[in-house]
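Late entry, XIL complex.
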Amino acid sequence: MSLHQTLTILTTLLAAGSAVPTPSPTTETSSTFPHLNALAQAKGKLWFGSSIDTTSSSVQDPTYMSIFNTASIFGQTTPGNTMKWDYTEPENGVFDFALGEETITLAKQSDKKVRCHNLVWTSQLPTWVSEASWTKESLLEVMKAHITKEITHYGSDCYSWDVVNEAINYDGSYTDNVFLNVIGEDYVTYAFQYAREAIATLGASADIKLFYNDYTISRPGSKVTAVLDLISKIQAAGDYIDGIGLESHHTDTYYPSVSDLSTVMNQYAAKGLEIHITELDVACKSTPCSWSGQLGQAQAFYNVIHACMENDSCRGMAFWDFNDKYNWIQPSTNDGEGDATVLWGNYASKPALTAVVEALKGESCSVC
Ligand code: XIL
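Prediction complete; structure with ligand written out below:
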């Protein structure tokens, strides 16, 4: 029986009485926070990273920024919002790269690689795209212009691009959006083709990897089958795709096992894809997250990092934020769900942070 299971039973038994004792957490700063990037790189991975949203108040928080800016803690970042279509092309043909540039500038200060995110997605798409009436040709033209401009503007400042984001639903069907409705399922392949062509115009030195990024693709099932089909289709059309991003938004009560993760990672690897853990966070279904919830959360973080460390094709891992105060899943807007990162809002550490370190070191989980 795992510590988590034991404590869940104990918590239930003691529900009416005293609570299970909890160890005192560390209040983290940049001098105490574990060197996750150095640990990952010591084991041959490219990086351990965290997203940054330069439109959020997190960037005004000195403790947050000193942790974020420490290269041995985070060696990679992804703009949480500012390279999405609504930011970069708010009107047809009017491009604005200023906010995206802020992330590139920040990343360079601490030598971080940038996963640029994203080019074609259902969400955060301006209404001039989603609500206009297009022909297949006119929408393909707009999509091509958008992809080409973003890729050529940022160039080699991007280690990789998420070319298409979340194209498949949980049941394996295609996500409903204007691209699907007007162009058909092939919009995905066209997007990858245009992205590859844009990179080619940058010359031989531009080595920018092209990724498909999605959620709930960490365990076998209809969605993974459909995503594998989608990858086969892209690959049949040309040498357009380099990798797959497993977003990894999980919860304390529903998360993949190491065995599930290794099954799907082997399937992606068999297609020749580089694998990244791109947006790792684990929300507690009810908040404030109970001790038992925190241990479930620790197990979820552990499983994801452990599975990546064990798989040679899994090259890098990143949190979708590292402090509950700034993570996108806030209880007030998510039916009470939240507390999804390794640190409380006041920088106190959770068992999940210990679990991440143990997984990176190849140790068993002492808090799961
Ligand atoms: C989220 C951002 O973190 C939020 O700030 C924004 O309001 C919505 O989008 N999948 C993705 C990310 O690929 O771009 C999303 O980011 C989270 C889910």
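Residues 25-361 form a domain with the TIM Barrel fold (CATH 3.20.20.80). Will revisit in the morning.
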